[in-house]
Amino acid sequence: MKYLFHLLMVSFFFNAIQAQVVDERLTLSTPTGDLKGTLVLPVHGKHFNLVILQPGSGPTDRNGNNPLGVKANSYRLLAEALAKNNIATLLMDKRGIAASALAAKSEADLRFDDYINDLVSWTEMMRKDKRIKKITLAGHSEGSLVAMVAAQKIPVENYISISGISQPIENIISWQIAQQAPKLAPIVDSMFNRLKNGEKLDSVPPFLFSVLRPSVQPYMASWMKYNPCEEIKKLSLPVLILQGTTDIQVKEEEAVKLQQCNPKTTLKIIPGMNHILKQAPEDRTQNIQTYSNENLPVMAELVTAITEFLK
């Protein structure tokens, strides 16, 4: 009998751990196809603050993973951690990615504004959910700018930038290439200037083909319209800027500069946090190893910073 009681207690605690969040699958219909998302809700309570999390660049899905080697589950882990603090999170697949693949536009037709408009539509949809008290738009990496502009287009209570940049994207790409091949910097700057002036680049050097091939040029041109430093000045709502010190993709000074662009914002630097929101050393090899470790939790300081900001 005692043995049976012990088994029942173990089963009870295991199920309690498993049931710390409730998932609801959501669909947002658009003219070009359905977008898919997951609403991660706390188990207890009837009304919640909601964070809508815009994913980063590339084929990053709603959980923070992508087929290019990132299997860290960062967004999902963050949502589960926030749920323990009675905060709901909407995770979504961008158009053309994962479960939203059928909503894809052709590479030549996709624009940066498509992501902004999709986020606005998700927000409008969640505004109709009577369980939601306040909505915060949050964006990670490239998603920082997407959410920043979306927050200007629809009323929300807060905005959070996570690993976001302060400069136009062409400056970042030029800097990255210059670090590896300084002699190529003038060529890169020239091509971006031509694209900014409305020229079509018929001939693109191999080292720039991934970001400036003909079919991607319209997307890059639409992205270059937005300067994060100028866009954050337009926000009058509460803003939290989060950045890790061991991020090998976005430098800490980007967050500092972003905060300086709008001094009314709040800046939180998290020691030891890398680009995928996990504890990592500065050593590049060891840092990248965390990108495929889904068992490593997101930084507790990140969860605390968001929770305190919202409450």
Would you give an account of this structure?
With 311 residues, the protein is an alpha/beta fold. It has two domains: 19-167 and 226-310, Alpha/Beta hydrolase fold, catalytic domain (Rossmann fold, 3-Layer(aba) Sandwich), CATH 3.40.50; 169-225, no CATH class. The protein has twelve helices and eight strands. It has helices spanning 2-18, 74-83, 112-127, 142-153, 169-180, 185-196, 209-212, 217-224, 228-232, 252-261, 284-289, 300-310, and strands at residues 21-30, 33-42, 48-54, 87-92, 132-140, 158-162, 239-244, 266-270. The chain has an eight-stranded mixed β-sheet, with helices on both faces. α2 (74-83) links the parallel β3 and β4. α3 (112-127) packs across α4. The protein is globular. The chain starts with a helix and ends with a helix. 40% of the residues are buried. The model is unreliable at 1-18 (pLDDT under 50).
Helices, by number, come to 12
**Assembly state (oligomeric):** single chain
Number of domains: 2
Helix fraction, binned, reads 25-40%
Sheet with the most strands: spatial strand order:
1-2-4-3-5-6-7-8
Structural class estimated from helices and strands: alpha/beta
DSSP strand content: 15-25%
Q: What is the residue-mean pLDDT, rounded to a whole number?
A: 92
Question: Helices, strands, pairings?
Answer:
Blueprint: H1 2-18, E1 21-30, E2 33-42, E3 48-54, H2 74-83, E4 87-92, H3 112-127, E5 132-140, H4 142-153, E6 158-162, H5 169-180, H6 185-196, H7 209-212, H8 217-224, H9 228-232, E7 239-244, H10 252-261, E8 266-270, H11 284-289, H12 300-310
Parallel strand pairs: 3-4, 3-5, 5-6, 6-7, 7-8
Antiparallel strand pairs: 1-2, 2-4
Helix pairs in contact: 3-4, 5-6
